[in-house]
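User:
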Amino acid sequence: MWNLLDEPWLSVRRRPDAEQAGNHLSARPSDISVRELLLGADLYAELLVDFTTQRPAIYRQLLLPLVVDALGCPEDATAWGHMFTAGRFSEAQRERLTAYLDAHHHLFDLFSSDDPFAQVAGLTTSGDATKSAAVLVATAALGNNVPLFSSRTEGDRLALTPAQAARWLLHVHCWDTGAIKTGASGDPDAKAGKTTGNPVGPLGQLGVVMPLGTTVYETLLLNIPYGRQPLRNDLPQWRRRAKEGDVTTTLSCATPAWTTRAAQGLLDVWTWQARRVRLVPETTSEGELRVSRAVVAAGDRLLLDVDHEPHTAWHVDSARTRARRSAQRGERKGAGRERKGEESHFRPVRHRAGRAAWRGLDALLAVGKSTVEEHAKEETDGFHTSILLSQLVEVSDYLPVGYGAQVELTGTRYGTKLGNIEDVYHDEIPLPLAALRPDSDVRGALLGVVEQAEELARAVNALAAELRRAAGAPPPPLGAWQYPGETLLHALDPLVRRLLVGLREVGEEDFDRTEEGLLAWEERAYREAWRIADDLLSASNAASAFTGREVKGRDGQTRIARESSAEAFFRANLHRILFRRTARRQAREDTTDDSLTTEQ
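Assistant: Predicted structure:
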């Protein structure tokens, strides 16, 4: 009745330079079908979405598994590189994609009465109740999930078009809230009409890291790992639709029953069915199809696996952290509260709301083997970047110099009981490919810039704290002291992004150009830091701040806190942190002194 492969439900922006039948294609957004998008992926610049978290959901739940199940993963870096340099699917690949879409066409009907896509046919609750379609929409108010400044209330009727319903259906499998879910009829684990202990959707447990290319075709390739051999039980969800048999054996997602398990492979984890869903379509008086009601119940619970999850960076436990977590597991086991999947020393790196993506470059650029010994020392935890960013090191020779790759980061923060979404994280930064090589100057430069920015923020915070002491002000509330530093980091944000774009054009061995960019960064950072500091010094007008006040330090010794000493300490910090600028200024002064001596 409404097939995802044929209906125009995906919004895209065409490449401005793309031409078709001699006519210039408009760069304005347009709606196309899945078939059109895949077969003409090189003609489209990007996939457009209603909400930022929909993009990884659509790619993972549909586009990527369609391509990989039809064509397989590239054999190695060379095969991947040849596909990338081709710039589009070959005629043979287009024929295989077309044959796959035709063979599985019947599995993509959104409102099929027998087997609806990504749903369970006839799914009901004990009372045959349905909920508002808002249960699918992260931005709509329903129950505990009441977004701030939402224009709708729970009482408002929400009628989704089939296109909207399809996008939010994929989204709910990836990002749905956790905790208590409606118990579905036929679910053996439902008790008293509900299931408890539901985790959030799989992507909600991650800090999603997704590389983006300059076309949809490039984005597809950048998100497909090479060298993956097909696994017998690794199938996309639309090929796991058995209606009979034990779900632990069939791995079917077409019945109300669900299981807790690890993914069988890439296709399985991409199309993970975290919920059992049924959309309830209706026809309006104008003859239009709408979805205003739905059933959302508990679905499969995923045990994260670092080998199969390509879209996140990982936190690697040190030996000390492993020992501490092992002791905690022993205590829980003794108390009968042991959790499944706790033995891993890898944990997803979650994005922090309000923190720019470039401030987490240490995790994104941690390229190497995924072993604890490689990235975590005895006392210090480490990082391991995503599978997809790691493989860019091996294929970088196939990418043009200055290639405009971007990295999109998305994530969600849930409430304490997981029943509501408190915040959504989204950022996108340019990615200099040279920075992914562990021994490159560009990598060292970027990590140095991030550390400089953080140190400058700490220096501004220290200045603000010392001025308060000199004025006799009470200690600032917890966290408030960070505000001047956060203001500075916000001011530095466009400077760092500009540097990232500039370093994309720099070769790995071009030390001089890298140093020029870093010196320009330090000059601008110096001006921004002093702008914030001047505001703090201007606001410090108490007489005691000038004359000084006796305070007790952390070591118990008394000292005099005054404005002049605070400013001098801040100035010294800037000279230490921005060492390139300091060295250049010193060299100029030395040259001037030498000139004066010669003249005399």
